[in-house]
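User: I'm new to structure prediction. If I give you an amino acid sequence, what do you actually give back? Let's try with this one:
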Amino acid sequence: AESSILTKQWYQRRVRGDEDDKVIYRLNALLPTASFSDKVDAAANCLRFKTELADLHKQREQMINQCLEYQQGLLDNASDQTKRPIQRVVRSLKQESSVEKIVKERSGAFFETKCNPFMDFQAKL
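Assistant: Good question. You get back a string of structure tokens that encode the predicted 3D arrangement of the chain. For your 125 residues, that looks like this:
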């Protein structure tokens, strides 16, 4: 049962990964072009998007860490015959954590580039 919960969380994490792929599209849709700049509150849109993106990154990081802790517990109690597949999963989760950091940095850099002109402060994630 615990394994299926973690598998479901892992799947949800992968699906949510698509959200970061849409950062450029979403920011372009939220922020005005010069001709519409007086009709859109770009600063408010940036603040709202910043919160959504930070929450998304936090949730995914927590899911990866939860899966990693679970697999590490399995590994600690595994017999020599069952260790290898668990070690592969642990390695994969650590790699996914590294990828997550890169995705977060890239989406943060794009956010800063797009939102800083509309905000009174440095809009770091």
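You can read the tokens as a compact description of the fold. Here is one thing that stands out. The first helix runs from residue 2 to 21.
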